[in-house]
Structure formats: structure tokens, C-alpha cells
User: Fold this.
Amino acid sequence: MTFVAPAVSLHGAVAVPGDKSISHRAVLIGAICEGETVVRGFGWSEDTAATVRAVRALGAEVVEEGADVLRIRGVGLRGLRASAEPIDCDNAGTLVRLLAGILAGQTWQQFELRGDESLSTRPMSRIAEPLAQMGAGVESAEGHLPLGIEGRPLQAITYELPVASAQVKSCVLLAGLYANGQTTVLEPVPTRDHTERMLRAAGVRVRVAPGRITVQPPERLELGEVEVPGDISSAAPLVLAATLLPGSDLILSAVGVNPTRTGFLDVLERMGARISIFNRRTAGGEPVADLSVAHAELVATEIVPEEVPRLVDELPLFALAASMAHGDSRVRGAEELRAKETDRIAAVAEGLKGVGAHIAATGDGFRIRGVPTRPRGGRMASAGDHRIAMLAAVCGLASRDGVEIEGSEAVAISFPGFFDVIDSLAQR
Ligand code: S3P
Assistant:
């Protein structure tokens, strides 16, 4: 339980932890490289620690060389070895989905993937189906974990994603590294492309056309060095708090601004936010920049289905922004939120209602009546979901009475030092 008191404003400059999506990929791909990969700016969190444990259990060596530097001794594309125990993916959806694609290519080895209670309720048929089509041996508990995978010789396929999911896309592309020809994924709407970028950096031939990604199976992978930018999804709660609190002035350094991830910044800007993106550069094949954020009054907007993947993890924060904006807002086409660490449509609507906001859940999103003043505050439960815990904290900062967060420790799933960072920035 953590109480987040109201703040007057947010001031200062911080760096957020390394991007979680890119950190998972660096360790998973590093594990199947030839030779050593050095990962700088690795974002340690409960989720990424599960990935490090998983590749160690499968035979790759991971040496911690500093607070956020890892040296991975890869075993080569086909060198992973089944462990005696099942692989515990804990709460990490990205780990289980991406690793499954790699394991499908470890010919005649048998693996079992498990997860915590939340991960065990999340859909796995979305990866089991394409992997089975490629010829892998896949067994799930009616579409859920535990997942048994037997690596087999794989057929290249062309796979049209039934849901806009970077995890499913990545799973198929990673399995495609082991297939007997070119594997193509067709995606209805662009989703984060970190896997494509990192595979390219590792020497894989990846062709990208609008809505279509093709990989050619390589002889070997070699990454060398990966520099992980700050996680825009961890920056997002701070960006929102600074936007909502009058007098704020916040700088965030070295944040990843990959255009497949910046939907929340674009949406806030169209609502009137004052965010500048400067010092644009490229690091490790990913766009990076510094951000500065000042307070602004917000106006309502509508989120349409095509833009959902670009801010999927930030939609809970959007709901808070909209509830403090002028006018009525809506989110459509976000039914995927029901398949996250918890049902985020239900958790956000219940949580925000409980602190005084006017929000209603719909089948595929929210309807929100904006009231441009501080919400009352009160109690919010994280439901074990890191994004809901961080939403509750921003709510506390922007509220009249503060917010008591039940299950606040969930922030460690992606951002272990989150409460210290907000304490260091908040003026009270
Ligand atoms: C992720 C993809 C998204 C996102 C998750 C991380 C990734 O999930 O919500 O937090 O690293 O590929 P989906 O692919 O299920 O949309």
C-alpha cells in the first residue's frame, strides 16, 4: 500500500529505465547470437529479470557488468538446450510470446513455458496457431499456459495477424529465422517494430513494405552492442503528471521515440499539451530524443482503432487525461486492453470512477466526460498490474485528497524506482 499525496507541480530532469520491449529482445536475440553481445542501458525490472533467468536456464551466459550493462554469451541460433525445470515467464507476456518463436526452431528439443496467475489467464492460441502451422509441436491448456513446445523443422508461412500484436508478429518472425524459406507477416495496423530493427542490426535480411514484413533465414546472428533507449511507456506517467499540474517543468532525457510507440505524445499534443521533442538522434537502430513538458489545459479527443497500437500501454493514462480535459472523449477499437496483465478496460473504469472521474467502460474502450479540475482522490487497486498502479500514482499527484494505492508494488514489473522518481520531482 502506498499513499501518493497531491503535488503542486513536477520539476526537474530525469532519465527513465531502459525500454522494456527492447530489453527483452536484446536478451532473447543476444542468447541466439554467435559470440558476445553487450547491452547498455538495460532496463532491469521484474519482467526483464524473468527473461535473463529464462535464457540462463536455456544455456546462454549473462554477466552483469554494471548497473545496466549486460554481457551475453550467445549459444548460436540452434544452441539452446531444454532445462530440467519448466521455464517460468512470471508476469511477462513479451517473454513467453517471443521465446516460444525461438524455441519452435530448436529441433527435437522439448520445452515447457509457465507463468504467474495473470499470465496464465492470457491468450496463447494467438501464438500456438501460427507456430503449429509452421510445423512446431505445440500444446497448450486450451489456449493458455502451460505451453509445451517441441522444436521441429519449420515451414515458412505467410501469416496474417488476426489481432494487431507486436508480440505475435515477433513470435512468427523469430520462428521464421529457422524456416525453410521466407516467412511473411501481414499486419492490419502497424505495431512496434523493435524486433525487425534488432534482427536487421544482427544481420538478418528483413524486408518491410506497408503492412508486410518478410524475414529470410540467416546463417548466423551477430549483434555486438545494443544501446537501449529510455522507455517511453515509463516516461508517459511523468509526461502526463507534468501536463496536468500547473507550473510544471519536466525534462526527460534519452527517451525512445520510435514512431510506432509515440502515439501518447501525439494524442496529448492534439489535446493541447506542451511537449517538445529535441536532441533527436539514433542509438542502437532506434530513434531517441529528450523531452520537455510544461503544464497545459487539455481538450477532449477521440482515439480511433487504427491508432490504438501506437499507445496501447498508455491508454489507461489517456483515460485520466481525458477525464481532466474540456469536453467528452472516447476510445474505440481497444478491446485488446482486456487481454493485458488484467482487464484494463474494467480496471481503469472502476479505478477512475472510484476517485471521482466520469468514465464508462464500453466493449472496446471508454467514454469519458471531462471535468477540468482535480479529481477527488481516494483508493485505487492495481489489480497486480503495473500500468494501473502508475495510473493511480498520477491520479494521486493530480488529485485534491491523494490516492491510496493497493498493490502499489506492481510498479516493479516495469519501473522499480517509480515512487522514488515521482517523490524527487513532485513539489508539494
Ligand atoms: C509488447 C507489445 C504489446 C504491449 C506490451 C509489449 C512488445 O503487446 O502491450 O506491453 O514488447 O512486443 P501486444 O503485442 O500483445 O499488443
User: Anything to note?
Assistant: The chain has 13 helices and 24 strands. The chain has two domains: 2-17+229-427, 20-227. Residues 282 and 288 are 6 Å apart (CA to CA). The chain has a mean pLDDT of 98.
